[in-house]
């Protein structure tokens, strides 16, 4: 499904000029078309590989020089209705984001909710811009495609923080039976034990790689177009278009499969947090354009879309219909997001929970530092070791889990028939299991100074500013968040 998602979606992103106009320009840089005896194969290839990268850069030079977009030949009323719908969806989403920042009580969760809510305005605005301007669409569409990848990762992070964070998740699942892979990989791969830190790291890497690979593919497409090696629409080993499409399909398929695998492992634990409407909203927005594009591509292939519309070929008309439909559908998705990601989920009336100021909330929600730091930790993998994710209780790993033997190899030992456990020291490490003869020497202890002991920790400047403001309030600190991230 993911392969079709990528390969079929942007056969609709063609130039709206008659085919004769664009073909004259394309003939200067595209390889010659196959012989007439392979027309059906060429048409099938256009359907299967007409979307790399989706939409950005898929316009000819004549289109880019004109101010009109895919909807330049549509009726004025259609363009206005699409614009009003796009504006309505944007306003609803902005109000929803404002309510989240105005009631910013759980930063560890709401920062991801705000980022997800921003997806609807980006989709609606980019689709309407494609209707009215090719030039502007070339700049806006890459942002939409990159943000789509970022949203998948953001939703994954939201689910993790619902469960209290990565350490809490891994410890909570310790002792559970492994879960089978999704069909048909369950017949090939071993069951998944998400309580194993390395297994969890592999799932997380599978999701995160798409968010970082998508911008790289976009930049590489621009470079290949500038050097004349992209050859858009041509399927061959010398075409950068073909290889970029292949890499994209592998990446998005791996990302979505990893997200689905995580969902299968943790769906029972996520039930108190209403994850189903949230998951559906994200899937519907991301794949709405795909399913519509798929249907319109089939209609073009079957000849059901007319080719006698003045100024349009069937592909170009399908692109205009696609952009208009997305604009009209976005208000529905905006309302659905309002319900699925309501700020009421984070306002617990049983607690006198304070909120973060709007300015601080916006900075927290749109700041990229957490993404950058998490990406570094994920790809380095230094912190995902058995010792760092060991529970203090005496629960043993499930008998079907391979992590039990892996933990023993890493240095964990059971005692008193499994009623207790301890870790052997790593090379150079000193703990309660280390011989006293290997402890710290008196000379090393004597080097400690009073300055080291009495040194005052420095608070963050912004944190100190919040404290100073709180002390001036008549009824105390009403402006500070209560961190209860894992409470439904």
Automatic annotation (TrEMBL):
This is Organic solute transporter Ostalpha-domain-containing protein. SMART domains: Solute_trans_a. Its main location: membrane. It comes from Coniella lustricola. Keywords: Membrane, Transmembrane, Transmembrane helix. It is found in: Membrane. The chain crosses the membrane at residues 76-100, 112-134, 146-164, 211-230, 242-264, 284-305, 317-341. GO terms for cellular component: membrane. The keyword Iron-sulfur does not apply. It is a multi-pass membrane protein. The lineage of its organism: Eukaryota, Fungi, Dikarya, Ascomycota, Pezizomycotina. It comes from the Eukaryota.
């Amino acid at each position: 499904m993911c392969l079709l998602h990528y390969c079929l979606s942007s056969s609709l992103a063609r130039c709206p000029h008659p085919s004769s106009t664009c073909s004259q320009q394309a003939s200067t840089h595209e390889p010659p078309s196959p012989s007439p005896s392979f027309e059906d194969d060429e048409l099938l290839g256009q359907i299967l590989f007409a979307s790399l990268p989706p939409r950005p850069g898929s316009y000819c030079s004549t289109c880019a020089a004109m101010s009109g977009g895919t909807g330049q030949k549509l009726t004025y009323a259609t363009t206005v209705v699409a614009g009003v719908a796009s504006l309505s969806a944007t306003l609803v989403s902005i109000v929803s984001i404002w309510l989240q920042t105005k009631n910013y009580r759980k930063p560890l969760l709401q920062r991801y909710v705000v980022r997800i809510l921003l997806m609807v305005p980006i989709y609606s605005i980019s689709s309407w811009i494609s209707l009215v301007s090719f030039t502007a669409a070339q700049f806006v569409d890459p942002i939409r495609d990159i943000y789509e990848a970022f949203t998948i990762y953001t939703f994954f992070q939201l689910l993790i923080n619902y469960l209290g964070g990565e350490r809490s998740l891994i410890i909570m699942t310790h002792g559970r039976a492994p879960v089978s892979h999704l069909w048909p990989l369950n017949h090939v791969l071993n069951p998944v034990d998400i309580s194993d830190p390395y297994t969890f790291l592999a799932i997380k890497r599978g999701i995160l790689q798409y968010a970082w690979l998508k911008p790289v593919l976009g930049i590489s497409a621009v470079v290949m177009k500038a050097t004349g090696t992209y050859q858009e629409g041509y399927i061959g080993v010398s075409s950068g278009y073909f290889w970029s499409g292949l890499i994209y399909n592998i990446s998005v398929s791996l990302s979505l499969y990893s997200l689905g695998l995580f969902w299968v492992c943790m769906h029972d634990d996520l039930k108190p947090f209403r994850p189903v409407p949230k998951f559906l909203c994200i899937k519907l927005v991301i794949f709405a354009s795909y399913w519509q594009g798929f249907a319109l591509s089939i209609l073009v292939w079957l000849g059901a879309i007319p080719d006698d519309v003045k100024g349009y070929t069937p592909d170009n008309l399908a692109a205009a219909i696609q952009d208009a439909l997305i604009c009209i559908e976005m208000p529905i998705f905006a309302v659905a997001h309002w319900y699925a990601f309501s700020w009421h989920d984070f306002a617990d009336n049983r607690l006198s929970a304070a909120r973060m100021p709007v300015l601080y909330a916006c900075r927290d929600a749109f700041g990229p530092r957490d993404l950058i730091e998490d990406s570094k930790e994920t790809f380095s993998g230094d912190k995902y070791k058995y010792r760092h994710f060991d529970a203090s209780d005496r629960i043993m790993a499930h008998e079907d889990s391979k992590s039990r033997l892996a933990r023993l190899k890493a240095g964990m030992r059971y005692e008193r028939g499994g009623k207790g456990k301890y870790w052997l020291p790593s090379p150079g490490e000193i703990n309660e299991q280390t011989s006293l003869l290997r402890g710290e020497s008196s000379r090393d202890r004597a080097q400690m100074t009073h300055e080291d002991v009495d040194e005052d920790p420095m608070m963050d400047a912004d944190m100190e500013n919040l404290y100073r403001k709180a002390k001036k309030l008549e009824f105390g600190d009403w402006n500070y968040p209560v961190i209860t991230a894992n409470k439904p």
